[in-house]
């Protein structure tokens, strides 16, 4: 699932990461084993992951465990989604199980959208809309507790929206029809309001 033409949706790293040095086969195996352990834990205990499994089932889909795979990714990213191949988790860029939780939740939002709304992943606006929803609903843009203590609710809300826009654009820029980052930002801005406000299958955003 690592070839570029099959990466219809990707989760960017939480911060800028350089490509890693060449890993030994032993190190690759170790990273994938750890990723599999994190994944198994989240599939049993993560409220968000379990909720998304149920909602995808309610929408008429099914998440097969063998379609959520831990792999060594050549490019800096946390994961990816393909409607036929499933979810890729990048073992060499996911540092801990909490980042894996957010990444898996992000990709499951794409899975839900693909099941419920029949997304055309080659349509930039469809792709951008799902990236906005995934960034917003997965928890990856949740505001840290200490930030909440020092900011008003308006600042918290705007901070969440800025994070969602930034991360959605970082995903959209990898789309084969996207020209550059300016184009990605433009597309995200065009669909942001309606897609950000659509919190299905959640009742609200928990930031």
TrEMBL record:
Low complexity biased stretches: 7-23
UniProt keyword terms in alphabetical order: Hydrolase, Membrane, Metal-binding, Metalloprotease, Mitochondrion, Mitochondrion inner membrane, Protease
Top EC class, one word: hydrolase
A single MF term (Gene Ontology): metal ion binding
Biological processes per GO annotation: mitochondrial protein processing; mitochondrial proton-transporting ATP synthase complex assembly
Subcellular location: Mitochondrion inner membrane
Functional summary from the UniProt entry: Has a dual role in the assembly of mitochondrial ATPase.
Family, per entry: Belongs to the peptidase M76 family.
Region described as Disordered: spans on this chain: 1-23
Membrane-topology descriptor: Peripheral membrane protein
Domain of life: Eukaryota
A Gene Ontology cellular-component term: mitochondrial inner membrane
Designated name of the protein: Mitochondrial inner membrane protease ATP23
Taxon lineage: Eukaryota, Fungi, Dikarya, Ascomycota, Saccharomycotina
UniProt entry tagged with the keyword Zinc: no
EC number: 3.4.24.-
Pfam families linked: Peptidase_M76
